[in-house]
Specification:
Blueprint: H1 2-17, H2 20-28, H3 34-57, H4 66-94, H5 96-103, H6 106-118, H7 124-140, H8 146-178, H9 183-204, H10 214-239, H11 244-251, H12 253-265, H13 272-296
């Protein structure tokens, strides 16, 4: 029963994360930059997370050694802060559907660049996953249409940077947890460091306050609550009831949710080959995480 509940919690977290692209796009359509939108999202989300996590864990939430704190700062500033910023820029440039697919290159970047430091073996399944992701991304971003690539190359590069920076979050968070940091601590500190970094960057580039109408307020609060505070809390709670590898498989529903919402809300349309590419990327990541879960079982 606890495993079923854990799966449902993680699936719910994935659905919540999947709303980020659409909510961000709707907010940016009001005239605000990705930097400003991310600053509000992470800052308000952090306050909510901190309140809930501290109420749940108390002073244990702050129990982290200096080495782990450095890792969490790296994960927060680069992975959460700038990784989210690049993702929102990609959403703004190429749409939520393609941006989330490119974000899902993160586990592959982790596999290629960080497996030695995490002492993870390179297996045939992992190699196949890498190949499928590259093929899938090629199809998803219409690599077969050079005119499309020339027009949208900036968005494609920014989307890949989002995946690369999020891989830093994956590696640094794993290392911090290996040193004893709890999932609650990792979640709260990384979002906090990310919020601080983006807020400072926004101030340095000319802070543009959001005009809080009923609509803009609803969008900002939805961004801070649904794909930030609620998604992280659901994932952490679900992670305590299921294996980490399986939890990551379930969380790939984020990409599916993002693509469906982009179609329904934003009217984004994908060609058949692009859909095939999306399926290849999401499927390969699910296969990779499923393999890891089997190995740990």
């Amino acid at each position: 029963m606890s495993r079923v509940l854990g799966a449902l919690l993680v699936l719910s977290a994935g659905v919540c994360w999947g709303t980020a692209g659409v909510l961000g796009k709707l907010t940016m359509e009001l005239g605000y930059s990705p930097l400003t939108v991310v600053a509000y999202r992470l800052s308000i989300g952090f306050v909510i997370l901190l309140a809930v996590a501290y109420a749940w864990r108390g002073k244990r939430l702050l129990a982290v050694d200096r080495g782990s704190l450095s890792l969490l700062a790296l994960a927060g500033v680069l992975g959460v802060g700038f990784g989210t910023l690049f993702y929102f820029y990609a959403v703004d440039l190429i749409g939520a559907s393609l941006a989330v697919v490119l974000l899902y290159t993160a586990p592959i970047f982790t596999l290629i660049t960080a497996s030695p430091s995490l002492r993870e073996k390179i297996s045939a399944v992992k190699v196949v996953s890498v190949v499928l992701v590259f093929v899938g991304c090629y199809l998803a971003v219409k690599g077969y249409d050079l005119s499309y690539v020339k027009v949208n190359y900036t968005g494609i590069i920014v989307g890949l940077l989002a995946g690369l920076f999020y891989s830093i979050y994956i590696v640094s968070s794993k290392k911090a947890m290996n040193r004893g940091a709890s999932t609650f601590t990792v979640m709260t500190f990384t979002v906090g460091f990310g919020a601080l970094a983006i807020f400072v960057a926004d101030l340095a580039t000319g802070f543009c306050p959001i005009v809080f109408t009923l609509y803009s307020t609803a969008l900002i609060l939805a961004l801070a609550v649904i794909p930030t505070a609620l998604a992280n809390l659901l994932f952490v709670l679900g992670l305590n009831l299921t294996e980490a590898g399986r939890a990551n498989v379930y969380s790939t529903v984020e990409a599916v949710t993002a693509v469906i919402l982009a179609f329904l809300v934003l009217g984004e349309r994908l060609e058949p080959l692009q859909v095939l590419g999306c399926v290849a990327v999401i499927g390969s990541i699910a296969m990779l995480y499923s393999f890891e879960a089997t190995q740990r079982a």
